[in-house]
Design a protein that fits this description.
Radius of gyration: 20 Å
Order of helices and strands: HEHEHHEHEHHHHHEEEHHEH
Number of helices: 13
Number of strands: 8
Largest sheet: 6 strands, parallel
Strand content: 5-15%
Strand order of the largest sheet: 2-1-3-4-5-8
């Protein structure tokens, strides 16, 4: 073999050993969905696997599609995060880290995972239509009948902060009533905790700041999430439900209760827009806007 050929082969081998492999991706579906529906997250999983050639894991709560679907309504987020953390720790494919993508309420669940489960390490966090400051309304209520939706709204408006609702209805755990901020902060069993609104959990700050990038996607024509600003960590101004404020105007940012102010200063926070309704995006939009965070 010619010496020049040997040098070429060595260069190729060295390049392969130096170039980092693409990290796996972990997906967390939203309300009214499952890990594996081919027309939603299951199809997105195959899309990423085919396009990027990566290991992709779609989170399933329980042992069946039915139990996974029900979990979106009736399994407390704290239990879900704990279970998913244990599952990811046992997945050897994730030992070098992963990128997380959360859909709708799966966005705040994935963020809770980043804050509570530092290993395996999450590299980039992408939330698509996540409700980081909660919701105050359930318009359209996907995958449920209008009668059921109206029942959910009525229950949440009247009893969101009772022990029963907080323990048995997922949506109550991130129901954020801007007219009753004190009650919300004292009674919320999930959102108020992961947003450090009662006490400061330093591990949440440290773990979130270990992210390389926190990417939040807002859908500009969203008819599901109220208010729209929650997808960018904004919300209603306290005491009313008409005017909204951005993340940078909120107490959680100004007081830096979650470390987001520092992350913003370090250019670790990215705000992206998509012009569709809730979770309506194209493959081309994903290629253009998100693939750079999955390389």
């Amino acid at each position: 073999m010619k010496q020049s050929h040997v040098f070429v082969m060595l260069a190729v081998l060295l390049t392969k050993s130096v170039l980092p492999e693409k990290l796996p991706v972990v997906l967390w579906h939203g309300m009214g969905d499952t890990c594996c529906f081919p027309f939603s997250v299951g199809g997105f999983k195959k899309f990423l696997e085919n396009e990027l050639g990566i290991y992709c894991k779609s989170i399933e709560i329980g042992n069946s599609i039915v139990s996974d679907f029900k979990s979106g309504y009736f399994v407390h987020p704290n239990k879900q995060v704990e279970s998913v953390c244990a599952d990811l720790m046992n997945d050897t494919n994730l030992s070098n880290g992963y990128n997380g993508i959360g859909f709708s309420q799966g966005g705040q669940f994935m963020r809770a995972l980043a804050q509570r489960c530092p290993w395996p390490r999450m590299n980039n966090l992408i939330t698509l239509g996540g409700q980081h400051q909660g919701v105050f309304g359930l318009p359209n209520c996907p995958s449920l009948s209008s009668k059921t939706c109206e029942g959910f709204r009525r229950m949440l408006n009247n009893a969101a902060y009772t022990d029963f609702m907080q323990n048995h209805l997922v949506q109550a755990t991130y129901w954020h009533d801007p007219l009753n901020e004190i009650t919300y902060k004292n009674s919320s069993t999930f959102l108020a905790d992961i947003n450090n609104e009662r006490t400061i959990n330093q591990s949440y700050i440290q773990n979130l700041q270990s992210l390389k990038t926190f990417i939040m996607v807002r859908f500009n024509k969203d008819s599901i999430v109220q208010p729209l600003d929650s997808q960018w960590f904004g919300y209603y101004k306290p005491g009313q439900d008409v005017q909204t404020q951005s993340l940078r105007e909120s107490d959680v940012y100004i007081q830096d209760r979650l470390g987001l102010k520092l992350m913003d200063a370090e250019n670790k926070i990215v705000f992206l827009e998509c012009d569709g309704n809730h979770l309506q995006f194209t493959k081309e939009w994903v290629r253009k806007k998100l693939f750079k965070y999955l390389q």
